[in-house]
């Protein structure tokens, strides 16, 4: 902290007054370290770049925030836009971009059971025969790094009881700080670091230590939650506040080792419930350290507010360096859905994860005064007396002067105590936080809250631990309640206390908040890649954070519900850890391929996956499908890709320049659609296009695969050859896919937005089914 303050102060004293307001943190990305220079030589090189745009050596030194010295070659510094532009033109500089403020996506006693992983005993003497976890030895000695808000080390989920020595491959540290020292790491939580320089430079102020710990300790809850989803130990008798969802909590790889890289911090002046912020500068430093520390998998539940070019995206740059070293990187797709083109983390070397539901609900019906019963869900730990209460619509109970367009939103200070006291209040979702609406009803003296979905939220019901009795209802049910209120002078209602129900059908369905494709940076790569459980997930929590994260909420819990693609991402990272344990020689691309091609596109009733409104979903919401660990360790065939393949992809991708300054693009770069990806996307097809794919046999030595095709509407698809004969494991076979627009197509491709149609092709030997989705639009 002292070093940052003195450095910034020195810089400000050395600069003219006109430069103060122009300074902001930038990343200067230089590509890959050659391995020939010492750490001091690297630092001197970075300093020389700054010296070329700064007036004095003192100013150059004071402006440096980070010097990335391990795998990532680059620096972070306080620059003016003019200085950044000058640096971007220099030889050896790949890209220069302002450090973006990114955030995580917030919105497990059941999710792993729902995915079909029931063998969760993590003691050596309790191993059961068969099952993915048993085969992977529960992820033993695989190291998973997480970029997040820190970790609560005392949680039982992070106990190291019965675990063996730390793997010799581990080179990381346990960084001490506020309320955190080296003893907080153990044989489970083997490493912890924190990164603040970029955050403090962005806000030009030190961290307010009353809002967070200046250490790897988690004050928010998010980092502990994601960590326990990936690799939390088996913990019996876990439940949320009020006793909901009681059962056994476990991560996907309960014997995997965890390393926390704390890069996310509170937004100054905002309530913690609004989420934290994470800076590119800090994340690049964290990924650089994680690579050097020896992690096998990275789980990053962080994303952008809007899609970003790969060359201007710290996560994409860092992930490419990680993948070069065969580290699997899983990232959240984002919580900006259901609109099209809202995805984050769309680089093809990243596993991009959407969010969907599980088969557990918490029914809490609403009984109206006209005897109509409306279904709802709730985990509110408080109950009303079993009697009818007056019912009021929030739009009819606001204080004078509230804007009519937000009158029904129950925003802070909007409700009139005279109109609300002792009544149940119907509030609607759109603006503000869900728990904040309950807080407003309580402030105004309301007895309970009915929280109604907007049309976009449909039937999806994230649940909250309100400060008062209440339940959440779907859009149509909220409409029915409002119709009843408007039909009588004295509307009344009561709410039945919530309970836990599992094995619900149909499930899963896509979360309305989950960001959708197409990939607006490179529409010839289909994203997201996969969807996984991300609604109402119960996992470990910080004991310094309340269930709602509101400052006014003084309740404390050890386990808590949370929803978002932040929760779905570590589910995929957990499966990746198990695959790393079973197939240590597989590349990160092979692991991604196995996860994608074994996914399922139907729910537990055998029907196509739907979205929150009940409409049929498509690959722009779920990618290849819903995560299905059943066959993931034995996918039959995999689509592999190397670091060089990704650089060639960048050469041919929408004019993007490469991310490795030492790599020279060929004169004729391949189309982005030609990347050996487990899915296929062709944007603005004009006539006919042929792409190539190569599969590697990882199943039976001698096998014969035949292809079946379900072409997208409006195009014909031919695959040659249609039969692949393999004689050994590890053998590769290539095939071509020719896609042709039909002249007599009845598909309506008109409109201002690009219209895609979807299909698939599947290779099968009678045992393995290797499915790849297709998305095609016409020019």
UniProtKB/TrEMBL annotation:
Ranges for domain Peptidase S8/S53: 139-625
Catalytic residue positions: 148 (charge relay system), 222 (charge relay system), 566 (charge relay system)
InterPro entries: PA_domain (IPR003137), Peptidase_S8/S53_dom (IPR000209), Peptidase_S8/S53_dom_sf (IPR036852), Peptidase_S8_Ser-AS (IPR023828), Peptidase_S8_subtilisin-rel (IPR015500), Peptidases_S8_3 (IPR034197), S8pro/Inhibitor_I9 (IPR010259), S8pro/Inhibitor_I9_sf (IPR037045)
Keywords: Hydrolase, Protease, Serine protease, Signal
MF terms (GO), sorted A to Z: serine-type endopeptidase activity
Signal peptide boundaries: 1-21
Chain ranges of the Subtilisin-like protease fibronectin type-III domain: 674-776
Ranges for domain PA: 389-480
Residues covered by the Inhibitor I9 domain: 26-100
Family note: Belongs to the peptidase S8 family.
Protein name per Swiss-Prot or TrEMBL: Subtilisin-like protease SBT5.6
Organism: Nelumbo nucifera
